[in-house]
Amino acid sequence: MKVVLALGSNIGRRFETLQGAVDALFDAPGLDFVAVSPVYETDPVGGPPDQRPYLNAVVIGSTMTLGPRAILERALGVETAFGRVRTEPWGPRTLDVDLIMVGELLSDDPELTLPHPLAHERAFVLVPWSQADPGAVLPGRGSVAGLLADLDQKGVRLRPDLALQPPD
Ligand SMILES: Nc1ncnc2c1ncn2[C@@H]1O[C@H](COP(=O)(O)OP(=O)(O)OP(=O)(O)O)[C@@H](O)[C@H]1O
Ligand SMILES: Nc1nc2c(c(=O)[nH]1)N=C(CO)CN2
Question: Is 21 within 8 Å of 81 (Cβ atoms)?
């Protein structure tokens, strides 16, 4: 099953945090690395004013053994390992890992909604995802390229000087 994860950081050493997350997500068995997107600097969407810009990226994996709950637990564990402190909704964070999709699975459980309920409207997710996988499709929503055609992308800027490496 294909697994798509979105990474974001807007506090501290943002790029090092994203690379650490890529490494940690694939550290344990069960999830195989497929691809990582370029890094984008993005204007904060929602949340309090005066937040720093985010660095965002998307990483794609594949699993034959893990269920969606196990993948979410791994994502939340990696967030915690990087010291994310939840303060206010949509507020600044050292690391946010969102599970965008797991295969064709659909779920409206608030603890694990699949696909991620806001992915289709977030250019900071869809722009990097389309670069990592130009043929990407968001289950229930259609092609990522088609979704992007309707979105304002000016707050999402490529950082060609920052390239994430595959997990070590
Ligand atoms: N697809 C998903 N990916 C990640 N977390 C999810 C998902 N669906 C539901 N959740 C739940 O959301 C909780 C995390 O919410 P969190 O505070 O990180 O939201 P956020 O990242 O601030 O906002 P957003 O969901 O808009 O990205 C997790 O504890 C998890 O149980
Ligand atoms: N640019 C940007 N804005 C956000 C982001 C993010 O990763 N990037 N994450 C949020 C909550 O998950 C809220 N707003």
Answer: no
Closest-CA residue, ligand 2 atom 10, reads 90
- Phi, psi dihedral angles at 17 (to 5 degrees): -65, -45
CA 98 / ligand 1 centre spacing (Å)? 6
Q: Pocket of ligand 1, candidates 45, 72, 126: which has the most ligand atoms within 8 Å of its Cβ, to mutate?
A: 72
Instruction: Kindly indicate the confidence band of residue 93, based on its pLDDT and cuts at 50, 70 and 90.
Output: confident
Residues 58 and 104: their CA atoms lie apart, in Å, by 18
The ipTM estimated for the assembled molecules is 0.94
Burial 84-111 (b: 16+ CB within 10 A, else e): beeeeeeebbbbbbbbbbbeeeeeeeee
Q: pTM (2 decimals)?
A: 0.95
Residue 91 to residues 1, 10, 63, 154, Cα–Cα distance (Å)? 32, 9, 31, 21
Position 118 scores a pLDDT of 98
Mean pLDDT score, 88-108: 87
Best of 5, 10, 88 for a ligand 2 pocket test (most atoms within 8 Å of beta carbon): 10
Can you give the pLDDT at residue 91? 63
